């Protein structure tokens, strides 16, 4: 991953946390606030304490140093096109408060060229030497087994559902002990537990017989909900739970890292929605079952390629979508997920009732 250029004002200030030098800070405890005017107005502050530097939107309660600057001036300073001291002497920006902290900023924040964002060898805790992205592959295994075995004629549910359930339980158990289970892993365990109950009781509950037909399609809808749900209900997009291990921890909460992972998670969510529709078409159009089934699973190939390539672009400069736009598309996707689950629940119950009547 290479350092980005042409960052906007917010990214530039937030990016200062990535080039922060804790050795130079020592036991420094202070807050640097930026009151930004000009083309990109805003108020931000950096909190330095305990050898860490964190970025925050809005004004600080009691900033140690306040820098009032037009955005274009500070951007030129950050890009090295303008000397900070000369700009201040020329009155291009003002500083109030602890001026000694201003004079120390060159030491506190290293040049971007000297910063390494990647963290080779860093991985989730535990005896298994697997990288973060390798764990993403592991998390997919129960689902892949389920998709492969679900439609095999005569396949016993102990294999098609029981094996994914057992594997999911092992994954979640291991990750809970040594690290932290992700939405994908916990969601898989919950889904396969419910699927096992439904598959085990087809004669007692109409949903059981319906699930025997629509269960694989429902799994794609559930997967879509897991990926999209993290954009609303989690601090990090689902893909970031795995890809973050390849980078320094200072980057994990940075919007320039969160953004590409939000795009990736949004892509996965909508990919599974399309996959669910292809799966439904395979059931409803028997003459085209092979075509839609193949198309459904081949969708994952470009999705994995996109994930592997796009997340390496972090940090992203000048993102194409705002946080609001990403959440809007994620929210729309969750509405589609809810609608599909209701539809499949109704169809499944009708299928089961019809089977019992026969």
Can you characterise this structure?
The protein has 358 residues and is of the alpha+beta class. The protein has 2 domains: 9-114, SCP2 sterol-binding domain (Nonspecific Lipid-transfer Protein, Chain A, 2-Layer Sandwich), CATH 3.30.1050; 132-357, no CATH class. It is built from 15 helices and 5 strands. Strand 2 and strand 3 form a beta hairpin. The longest helix is centred in the last third of the chain and has 35 residues, at 323-357. The termini are far apart. Mean pLDDT is 87; it is low at 352-358.
Layout of helices and strands, plus pairs?
Layout: H1 9-15, H2 22-25, E1 30-37, E2 42-49, E3 52-57, E4 65-70, H3 71-78, H4 84-89, E5 94-97, H5 99-103, H6 105-108, H7 132-150, H8 157-178, H9 183-200, H10 206-233, H11 240-243, H12 255-284, H13 289-298, H14 300-310, H15 323-357
Parallel strand pairs: 1-4
Antiparallel strand pairs: 1-2, 2-3, 4-5
Helix pairs in contact: 7-8, 7-10, 8-9, 9-10, 10-12, 10-15, 12-13, 12-14, 12-15
Oligomer: single chain
Any idea what the shape is? Answer: elongated
Q: Summarize the biggest pleated sheet.
A: 5 strands, mixed
Strand content: 5-15%
Secondary structure: helix percent: 55-70%
Question: What is the SS-derived class?
Answer: alpha+beta
Note the total helix count. Answer: 15
Distance, first to last CA: 61 Å
Count up the domains: 2
Cα-atom radius of gyration? 25 Å
Enumerate the strands of the largest sheet in spatial order, edge to edge or round the barrel: 3-2-1-4-5
Number of E strands: 5
SSE succession: HHEEEEHHEHHHHHHHHHHH
- Low-confidence parts: 352-358
């Amino acid at each position: 991953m290479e350092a980005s250029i042409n960052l906007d004002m917010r990214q530039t200030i937030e990016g200062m946390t990535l080039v922060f030098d804790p050795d130079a800070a020592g036991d420094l405890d202070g807050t640097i606030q930026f009151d930004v005017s000009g083309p990109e107005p805003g108020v931000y502050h950096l909190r330095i304490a305990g050898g860490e530097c964190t970025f925050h939107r809005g004004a600080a309660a009691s900033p140690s140093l306040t820098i009032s600057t037009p955005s274009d001036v500070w951007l030129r300073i950050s890009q090295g096109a303008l000397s900070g001291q000369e700009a201040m002497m020329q009155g291009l920006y003002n500083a109030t408060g602890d001026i000694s902290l201003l004079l120390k900023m060159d030491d506190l924040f290293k040049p971007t060229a000297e910063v390494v964002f990647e963290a080779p060898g860093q991985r989730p805790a535990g005896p298994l030497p697997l990288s973060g992205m390798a764990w993403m592959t592991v998390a997919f295994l129960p689902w892949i087994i389920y998709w492969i075995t679900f439609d095999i004629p005569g396949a016993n549910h102990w294999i098609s559902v029981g094996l994914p359930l057992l594997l999911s339980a092992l994954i979640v158990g291991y990750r809970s002990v040594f690290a932290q289970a992700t939405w994908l892993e916990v969601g898989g365990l919950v889904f396969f537990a419910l699927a096992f109950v439904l598959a085990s009781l087809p004669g007692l509950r109409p949903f059981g017989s319906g699930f025997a037909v629509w269960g694989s399609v429902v799994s794609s809808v559930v997967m879509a909900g897991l990926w999209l749900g993290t954009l609303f209900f989690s601090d990090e997009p689902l893909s970031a739970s795995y890809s973050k291990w390849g980078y320094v921890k200072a980057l994990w909460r940075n919007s320039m890292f969160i953004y590409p992972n939000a795009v990736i998670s949004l892509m996965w969510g909508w990919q599974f929605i399309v996959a669910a529709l292809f799966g439904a078409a395979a059931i409803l159009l028997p003459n085209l079952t092979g075509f839609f089934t193949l198309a459904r699973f081949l969708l994952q190939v470009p999705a994995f390629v996109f994930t592997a390539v796009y997340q390496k672009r972090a940090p992203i400069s000048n993102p194409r979508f705002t946080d609001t736009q990403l959440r809007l598309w994620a929210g729309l996707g969750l509405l589609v997920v809810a609608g599909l689950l209701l539809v499949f629940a109704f169809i499944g119950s009708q299928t089961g009732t019809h089977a019992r009547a026969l």
